[in-house]
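Sample intake — Mandelate racemase/muconate lactonizing protein-like protein
Collected from: Mollisia scopiformis
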Amino acid sequence: MPKIAKIEYFRVPPRWLFVKITDDAGLIGWGEASLEGHTQAVEGCLDAYIERYTGMDADNIEHIWQTTWRIGFYRGGPVFMSALAGIDIALWDMKARRMGVPIYQLLGGKVRDKIKVYAWIGGDRPGDVANQAKARKAQGFTAVKMNGTEDMGWLDSPSALDDCVERLKAVKALGMDAGIDFHGRVHKPMAKQLARALEPHRPMFIEEPLLSEHVEGIKALSQQTSIPIALGERLHSRWDVRPFLEAGAVDILQPDISHCGGISEMKRIAAMAETYDVALAPHCPLGPIALAANVQVAAATPNFVIQEMSLGIHYNVGGQDLTSYTHNPEVWNVENGYIKLMAGPGLGIEIDEEQVRRFSEGAKPWVSPGFIGPGGEVREW
């Protein structure tokens, strides 16, 4: 059995954390443990995992996953599960490369040949969406997502919602579909009004209409609107997901493969969602390794519907983007709203390790932005 000989991690701009695992025969696998705004915490967790897992059988991915989950007493949460995700994805990449096949072949084989995708427009304070949507359409996208609002008070002026409706109308006028991300920044008194205002204009979905700690509130909102409810980026395991499925509160599940324990747990969450007739649309405003891992799961998942990708997202500043750090960035070319399924072994992308090491030198951790209201109060970002 191949043994884990070395585990390394690399903090790289704009805000990603890559994991490299090497076995005792020199075979390499890459994973992504990015947790936006909490890089140092995940790095500390990885330090502990490196000591624990060096020397273990690299092919025993499920045993390593279960060891991480069950031996340690405390479990779950964004930090633990993001660190685990980086290791899990890298082990799947390594195992599939050893066998010379894409990861999806180890997940039961493909059920589709191409993956529907969408891109971001508008930024954290959304504006100029018509021109940005036109640019996305020229890139080959047929669907986009944008933040619904800027920062918003618990009970704000109803007029604060009007711009969101106009932005959706502007994008729809171009013949494109649009998802509206409430981003958890809209509280219940305003979320009810915004969902009602958007409903006649038929967005693809409304995302995180309330924060995920409010299961009953999301359930109530889902019963008041015909718009599909999407959420999941702040749910970190199948146990976190279960209450939303049992409540019938979600139509589209959006787990993040770098936050929910990697390929192993994403596949289990997808299968669980299928039993509730809930679609999978993974969250991924992250790097090429995370996106490639999502594509591998999407290829083998019947209830997958659409994939977020970070090409040109407003967080990708400083020259690094989804097409960075790889030798084959052409895999992200979009045509008629789809990307082709990668055919190469493992994740299907080839990491430019020299670039990773060069840009990781002195890389600063990304700090989450925030909003302050007019009274000096902290608002949800």
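Post-analysis note: The chain has two domains: 4-100, 105-347.
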